[in-house]
Design brief:
Number of strands: 8
Distance between the termini: 16 Å
Largest sheet: 8 strands, parallel, barrel
Radius of gyration: 17 Å
Order of helices and strands: EHEHEHEHEHEHHEHEH
Bound molecules: pterin-6-yl-methyl-monophosphate
Helix content: 40-55%
Strand content: 5-15%
Strand order of the largest sheet: 1-2-3-4-5-6-7-8
Number of helices: 9
């Protein structure tokens, strides 16, 4: 049941090249202003990233990534905002935690940096372990599946075993199917339609469908990432209904409105307000 309300994680990419909002928030002040806007629009958490993960993207230097995110995280935390840091690097995660980030969103689920698990274990923050097979420059070469739901579930289960063996409290681990990461269009829908297969692993589950390419296949006119916002909101509604803990989105207000509908719908069904 989608109660308590599914959370909204607002995307704040402080990068010149992310696929839908890259280049908008390179300046620190602009990034902070957008983080505040996300909060005002209803985001429960603002997810600050300093390295693009779009298919084909090249890695940025660790120092550049840290310089991009640290002042933004610090400023948003000082405004009372719950901040997560979107990074695969332990050093970057540690730097963000030091200035108040309470959640690390690691698209590699700990596979990219063997030091990540010990940082999470030592600091005790929440940790999103996303399903991942390779960095962006190679991820599209690793998109073959027999049974995508069973394989993603199995690979995430293996990550949970490794992460808990490294000392992370299992209650801190949040799982994410990694839509669009080493997954071609049609492989994303079974993961959404069978979200319960991931939820049954016993962890909170986050979903990041926002503006992704696979949504372009079901909409009237796919003029690019922004044209996918209504489809994103439909996924938010259905994911919340299926029991997702959070959705990671660019348009926080649309997500909050959709989640208001889900809550009202379920509240009325129980005979409440
Ligand atoms: N997708 C992107 C980046 N970070 N984090 C999680 N947990 N889940 C995702 O699906 C995810 C992510 C890529 O999208 P962006 O370039 O719009 O941030």
């Amino acid at each position: 049941m989608p109660d308590p309300r599914c959370l909204v994680i607002g995307v704040l990419n402080v990068t010149p090249d992310s696929f839908s909002d890259g280049g908008r928030f390179e300046a620190v002040d602009d990034a902070i202003a957008w983080g505040l806007q996300l909060r005002d629009d209803g985001a429960d958490i603002v997810d600050v990233g300093g390295e693009s993960t779009r298919p084909g993207a090249e890695r940025v230097e660790p120092a550049v990534e840290r310089q991009r995110i640290r002042p933004v995280v610090a400023a948003l935390v000082s405004e009372g905002i719950r901040v997560s840091v979107d990074t695969t690097r332990a050093e970057t995660a540690a730097a963000a935690i030091e200035v108040g980030a309470g959640l690390v969103n690691d698209v590699s689920g700990g596979l990219a940096d063997s030091a990540m698990a010990s940082v999470i274990a030592a600091t005790g923050v929440d940790y999103i372990a996303m399903h991942w097979r390779a960095h962006s420059d190679r991820m599209d070469d690793l998109d073959a599946y027999g049974d995508v739901v069973a394989e993603v579930r199995g690979e995430l289960e293996a990550r949970v075993a490794a992460l808990t063996a490294a000392g992370i409290d299992p209650a801190r681990i949040i799982l994410d199917p990694g839509l669009g990461f080493s997954k071609v269009g049609q492989n994303n829908w079974p993961l959404l339609a069978n979200l319960d297969a991931l939820i049954s692993l016993g962890h909170r589950v986050a979903v990041g469908a926002s503006r992704k390419r696979f949504l372009g296949g079901v909409i009237t006119r796919d003029d690019g990432p922004l044209a996918r916002d209504d489809a994103t909101t439909a996924v938010t509604t259905l994911a919340a209904d299926a029991g997702a803990w959070a959705v990671r989105v660019h348009d926080a207000r649309a997500a909050r409105d959709a989640l208001g509908v889900v809550s009202a719908w379920h509240g009325a069904r129980r005979g409440g307000g």
